[in-house]
Amino acid sequence: xxxERRIPMQAEVVNRVEESxxxxxxxxxxxxxxQHNNYRFAPGQFNMLYQYGVxxxxxxxxxxxxxPYLLQHTIRTVxxxxxxxxxLKVGDRIGLRGPFGRGWPLDAVQGRDVLIVTGGLxxxxxxxxxxxxxxxxxQVGRIAILQGVKHSEDFIxxxxxxxxxxxxxxxxxxxxxxxGPNWKGFTGRVTxxxxxxxxxxxxxxxxxxxxxxxxxxxxxLLLERGVSPAMIWFSMERxxxxxxxxxxxxxxxxxxxxxxxxxxxYHEIRHLLGVRGF
Amino acid sequence: MTQHAFLPRHKFxxxxxxxxxxxxxxxxxxxxxxxxxxxxxxxxxxxxxxVTVNAQPGAFRATPGDSPRLFAWANGPQALKPVVFKPVxxxxxxxxxxxxxxxxxxxxxxxxxxxxxxxxxCDLAALKLQDRHFLNGEYRDxxxxxxxxxxxxxxxxxxxxxxxxxxxxxxxxxGASRGYDLLLDELDDGFIVAxxxxxxxxxxxxxxxxxxxxxxxREADEAVQRAAAQxxxxxxxxxxxxxxxxxxxxxxxxxxxxxxxxxxxxxQVCPTCFCNSEHDxxxxxxxxxxxxxxxxxxxxxxxxxxxxxxxxxxTRHRYRQWLTHKLGSWHRQYGRSGCVGCGRCIVWCxxxxxxxxxxxxxxxxxxxx
Lengths: 278, 369
Description:
- The structure holds two protein chains of two kinds.
- By secondary structure, chain A is α/β, with parallel strands linked by helices.
- Chain A has two domains: 3-100, Translation factors (Elongation Factor Tu (Ef-tu), domain 3, Beta Barrel); 106-269, Nucleotide-binding domain of ferredoxin-NADP reductase (FNR) module (Rossmann fold).
- Chain A has seven helices and 15 strands.
- In chain A, the strands form three sheets. A seven-stranded mixed sheet of chain A has the order 10-9-8-7-11-12-15, with helices on both faces. In chain A, strands 4-3-6-1-2-5 form a six-stranded antiparallel sheet. In chain A, strands 13-14 form a two-stranded antiparallel sheet.
- Chain A starts with 8 loop residues before the first strand and ends in a 9-residue tail after the last helix.
- In chain A, 49% of the residues are buried.
- The model of chain A has no long low-confidence stretch (mean pLDDT 91).
- By secondary structure, chain B is an alpha+beta fold.
- Chain B has two domains: 5-230, no CATH class; 241-368, no CATH class.
- The longest helix of chain B is centred in the last third of the chain and has 20 residues, at 315-334.
- Chain B starts with a strand and ends in a 7-residue tail after the last helix.
- At the A-B interface, strand 6 of A face strand 6, strand 7, strand 13, strand 14 and strand 15 of B.
């Protein structure tokens, strides 16, 4: 047992960015020098973050795996614990356990076109994977990023998307279910944009994050276009409390999402997708 | 070959004394508040001599009697689970410093070694399953491990199954075949004692007993065989994962949900259910906070809560989750069913829902049973 993953390490908030009225990004640094130096994560993994007097929650790791010392977590204020986290300031100390789980299949991007489909804040867990593929531009084919949001005001990281858009052979498609006055993207479901995708589906890999129904619809469209079931990857979410496969909350039939996932290929979970109550 | 010794009834206290002398706190079955529970025992008088139990779906009645027998009943609501996997325990503590720094420290269990007297075959099988969950993965639970390592188990073969028992059909009882330090067979005038481990053999040797006779051993074996034959309930054999998942939309889930109170009793008395929740308790003087683990149940709304939504908002989904996990997903997770046939979920269900009946209803017309 790796003990430091069961007991939090001390981390300091070194930066805080207000992404939107309800979304913020914390940059963290492990206080202990040795822990700081030893920490490594894989894109798609998550940490358990603890705020003193408030509680502990799982948050996926944003940021660049080639710069593991700057741990970024983008959080949306939804419940009691995230409301507490929203009040954190630079210099505050919190607890961090991690990283946990299986990350994205980075080896499989080699020589393939890469499609990223995200919904809502779903983009966060794939940001490190986008950074990873953009750093290896020569080894991967075309890159397409499809991002859907509920309301155009929820769209964050405009600059980041503009930078990605400027990269060669990179296609960015944005969709908002409901759009405000300055929205330049598409208004409607993100899955309506699949016909605009300029990638070689037969030789592609897709990584998805966001609402399950969106990912299920997207998977159906991908299968219709000849994508192999082993090349369609989901990042799944369930209640997680221990992160080590013991507390039982994240069970998805026989899977423990915290340990066996959170990233799964379509063929491992196809029998469970969309079944209410699992 | 295992040695079978005979412990005369009047010398039973010698066994307790020997265990205590070896440093064990002794827990055993005690009749308390109308149920049989495992708690501290000082002498043989504490054990439920003569007590018989009538267990039915949703009903448990323990009746005193004149027989000298101590173990003439199958089980109470507790298994070995609370001895190793505590219902509530602190995992770690956070201490704030003057400058806003936080110090984290692990809670290390300081429990003394425990010997449990009267463990049943079903409970030994369940303990083995809990071991697989808490100890065999990449992460091994230090609290569980510490208690488990120093746990001494005196098993007693079951000769009085309740109407709700079905351990013979799961292959886990009524006789214990492994997982114990000492195994007892109760006869009218005493106990046959067999060791299942080195430390068990040491305790047995220290008792200076005569060998059991062939006739005594035959009588004990026949009693266990009768106990198996008496069982009327059963669970379909084999890996039920696929057939259960294939029937995930069966009408029976809704039907059982109309009776189920979603109280979670079944999960609390189940010797293999492992779900637990974690929460933080802040000291009132603001000088620290403990991170606490507590038994949870898949029948609560909080179990499947995720950012503002409950995945299993309806009772039919919670009952299905429990049953398909117990009898199906366990095969994928731990290589066998999560049910050991103790029947506790049937007895302690306030409305008497019977897992053996429900699984058959869901699997109606299945070819292979």
